[in-house]
Each structure stands twice: as structure tokens, then as C-alpha cells.
Design brief:
Elements (H helix, E strand, L loop, with lengths): L1 H6 L1 H27 L14 H4 L1 H10 L1
Length: 65
């Protein structure tokens, strides 16, 4: 068992580093979502999903008008 661990040590090390990076990315995305930060670049006219992203806000403005 020890021989196998020693032979696979570099693979285990890379796996741990990649897992930590993925975990940090997920935590960062979750924190951004809680803060209301969007990953959108801000150019809604050039975005193919522009009518999906702000659909709720558009419906509210139509109701108010």
C-alpha cells in the first residue's frame, strides 16, 4: 500500500491542487451570486441572450407604464 502511494504521489498532489482550485472557483461564484454580481460583460445589445437576462426587469417596467 505504501509503495502504491509513493508511486502515485505526484498524481495525488496534482489532484489535490486541482480540487482546491475548483473549490475556490465555486466559492467565488457563490459569493458573487449572493452579492448580485453578474458575469455579464454589460453589452446587452451584442449578447444573443439579451432578452432572457433582463426579462423580469422588462416585464416590471411594462407593468408600471
Amino acid at each position: 500500500m505504501i509503495d502504491w502511494l509513493v508511486s502515485q504521489l505526484s498524481t495525488i498532489f496534482v489532484l489535490l491542487i486541482l480540487s482546491a482550485v475548483v473549490a475556490l472557483i465555486i466559492v467565488s461564484l457563490a459569493n458573487d451570486r449572493k452579492k448580485g454580481v453578474s458575469s455579464c460583460g454589460g453589452s446587452c445589445g451584442a449578447c444573443p441572450m439579451h432578452d432572457k437576462c433582463h426579462a423580469a426587469a422588462k416585464r416590471q417596467t411594462k407593468k408600471e407604464a
